[in-house]
Design a protein that fits this description.
Layout lengths: L1 H5 L2 E2 L1 E8 L9 H11 L7 E7 L7 E7 L2 H4 L2 H7 L4 E7 L14 E5 L2 E9 L4 H10 L9 H10 L12 H11 L4 E7 L2 E6 L8 E5 L17 E5 L10 E6 L4 E6 L2 E7 L10 E2 L1 H6 L5 E2 L2 E2 H15 L6 E4 L5 H11 L7 E3 L12 H9 L2 E3 L8 E6 L8 H10 L4 E6 L12 E2 L16 H5 L3 E4 L2 H9 L22 E2 L1 H4 L9
Parallel strand pairs: 15-25, 18-21, 21-22, 22-24
Antiparallel strand pairs: 1-23, 2-5, 2-11, 3-4, 3-5, 6-7, 7-8, 8-9, 9-13, 10-11, 10-12, 13-14, 16-17, 19-20
């Protein structure tokens, strides 16, 4: 919960759709894109944008962008404007680089030597400063402060050996990937195809789904001939609401071409020898929706395992287990299962307050805390409560909740945190407070229980978190990937915000 109140947030979500079969399509591509963004709304609420294309020769691109929630950014008249697209990409934004203005709203569309391209990006480039200088030395001006515009301009630059009349987008994307190792998941739309790209470390998520007839969505009888279209998304949670089946993940370093004819893996760019993948472990802890699938496992199940591991590492002499709604609920259930204590609800959440973490203004976040919860007194009066949370970042939001529970009759409140202490900033697409603001780096952390008013506080260890995440990872073998790069199938996760060990050398 405290991620919400502390200003920690994901950078954004990306989504794309390509209609299969004959064009113009009967598939409502603009509606599918909008519903995909709604399902990714938890990844960013500052702005949203959609670009559709008819895929013709020459292609016609239609753009609509707006500030705020998807529901307000795309009124019915905007969808009418986008309705003739046979393919499209879209984006919902939470800024980590660049200020919150419409000019920073994605996707970006630029002219290249061979026509327009549209680009949507999730992540943050670790060497953005050096890359901005390089682009400007080529005489290219940048109109925004966003990393995503920088990526778009780098893709527009012609790579060596490219023929003047034949754009080689795989070469251009590879050129980009050699320029910057992480962190990005990209959608690049050119004419009648979408290229889906993950950086070689796989730091940000990206997966593919297949649109099938609603009548065959939950049956095993849907074959390739039933494919109505293809979708690609930051998270698989967006697939259910649009009638798509999960197909597979885009692998670290992979470039996938998605067209009306299907999905084709074009290349896998390897990491430096010996480097493991570095998928952001906090996608599991908090950022992703619990019904999303990463690395062959559901996020909800991983969070339950974190709770069970926490009960093993930090048992408590108490009467009941509960949670700070809602992201920590699976961990609380896992803790209760492992400990044998009953799970009950002690807090009632006002669902109409909104996710206060998405408000960049600190004062607005602080005002949101007091209005968010009510105590379910009858459930815990006279009892010792173990309260499971997903984080304690600054420490200034859990304290009022503990006070609320004790004033409502809890004899003891023990805090158990289903993730390790955050000690370091993230430079790869997650908005984390400065090192000085983090409670784990303050003197108060030595007696954090006394500081926040709890009877005890214990965190899940880094080793426990990694173990819980990696325990259920299925093999990434996939017959459709024609690559000999075995390193892409090895398991690894980024824990830099916990350990200070970044997957790549940072450049400033």
């Amino acid at each position: 919960m405290e991620f919400e109140e502390s200003g920690i947030g994901e950078e954004c979500g990306v989504f794309g759709c390509v209609a299969a079969g004959e064009w113009p399509t009967q598939l409502e591509v603009a509606q599918i894109l909008t519903l995909g963004l709604v399902a990714l709304q938890h990844r960013g609420q500052e702005s949203a944008g959609i670009v559709t294309c008819n895929g013709g020769s020459p292609p016609t691109y239609t753009v609509h962008k707006g500030m705020g929630l998807v529901s307000s950014a795309f009124p019915p008249e905007a969808l009418l404007k986008l309705r003739y697209g046979n393919l499209g990409i879209c984006h919902t934004r939470y800024s980590t680089t660049g200020i919150s203005e419409l000019q920073n709203c994605q996707p970006f569309v630029v002219d290249t030597l061979h026509g327009k391209i549209a680009v949507a990006h999730n992540g943050e480039l670790v060497n953005a400063h050096a890359l901005r200088k390089k682009v400007m030395r080529h005489g290219v001006g940048l109109s925004t402060s966003s990393d995503s515009e920088l990526i778009t301009q780098l893709l527009a630059l012609t790579p060596p050996m490219e023929e003047l009349d034949a754009p080689d987008w795989v070469a251009r994307i590879k050129n980009l990937m050699t320029e910057t190792p992480t962190s990005y998941s990209l959608l690049v739309m050119f004419k009648d195809v979408i290229y889906a790209v993950r950086d070689p470390y796989g730091n940000r998520p990206l997966c593919i789904g297949r649109l099938v007839p609603i009548s065959k969505l939950h049956s095993s009888g849907a074959g390739e001939e039933d494919t109505e279209g293809w979708v690609v998304s930051s998270e698989s949670c967006s697939f259910q609401s649009i009638g798509a089946r999960y197909y597979r993940e885009v692998l670290p370093g992979e470039i996938v071409q998605i067209s009306r004819h299907g999905v084709k893996s074009l290349s896998v760019v390897p990491r430096p020898e010996g480097d493991l993948p570095a998928f952001c472990i906090f996608e599991y802890v908090y950022f992703a929706r619990p019904d999303s699938i990463f690395e062959g496992q559901m996020v909800y199940t991983v969070r339950q395992r974190c709770g069970r591991q926490l009960a093993i590492e930090a048992p408590t002499d108490a009467d009941v287990v509960s949670t700070v709604p809602e992201s920590a609920t699976p961990a609380a259930l896992g803790y209760a299962q492992q400990s044998g204590l009953p799970y009950i609800e002690v807090l009632c959440k006002n669902r109409y307050v909104g996710r206060t973490f998405i408000q960049p203004n600190t004062r607005l976040r602080q005002l949101g805390v007091a209005k968010k919860f009510g105590a379910l007194t009858d459930n815990f009066a006279g009892k010792r409560v173990v309260l499971i949370d997903d984080s304690i970042v600054r420490g200034n939001t859990i304290s009022p909740i503990i006070k609320l529970l004790k004033e409502a009759g809890a004899t003891e409140v023990h805090i158990r945190v289903a993730s390790p202490p955050i000690r370091f900033p993230c430079y790869m697409g997650i908005n984390i407070p400065t090192k000085e603001e983090l409670i784990a780096n303050k003197p108060e952390f030595q007696d954090i229980a006394g500081y926040i008013g709890a009877d005890s506080v214990q965190y899940l260890t880094v080793e426990g978190l990694v173990s819980a995440v990696q325990e259920g990872i299925a093999s990434l073998q996939n017959d459709k990937i024609s690559s000999n790069d075995r390193s892409s199938k090895r398991v690894g996760h980024c824990t830099a915000c916990l350990t200070g060990k970044y997957p790549v050398e940072l450049e400033w």
